[in-house]
# Entry
Amino acid sequence: MILYHGTSGRNARKIMKQGFTPGLKYNWHVQSKPGFVYLSLGYAPFYAMYSTKNSVEGAIIKVEVDEKVLYPEDDFIMAALKKPRYTQDDLDRVDLNFFKQYASDSLKFLGNACAKPEDIKIVGCTYFDMSKLLYVCDPVISSLNYQIMGDYYRKLTEWIYEGNKPEDFRSG
# Structure
């Protein structure tokens, strides 16, 4: 299956040379589970935007991964555990292996999943100017938002990956 990873242009160049090395930099107040790369069907541009504070160059890395090696994304698990707001300690107590069978649900309902770096094949990478991304992309990452806007964000991700400017995107 094809998924995407959003990051800064700088990080993408390292990934394209060295492969994925998860856990070196975190963008959120709660650090993701170590040893995993987080992938998305539709939120890669948003993750790219939040991966850097000093640059407008974002990147979307297109990957291929067997659906059988995917794990559910942290926010999906924590919402299922009725902890939509969680702490680092809450997430640290979660064993992703225990929830592995819910990876397809994580993709279906949240649009995100994760995988171990050795299970990911990098297909390609596109660099883009994020300076006007907010004109077309300011998502709230939640199951409800993905159910309403998921198609829009999947099309936007593909549009940008194909080398188009985000601000020229029209969903219709």
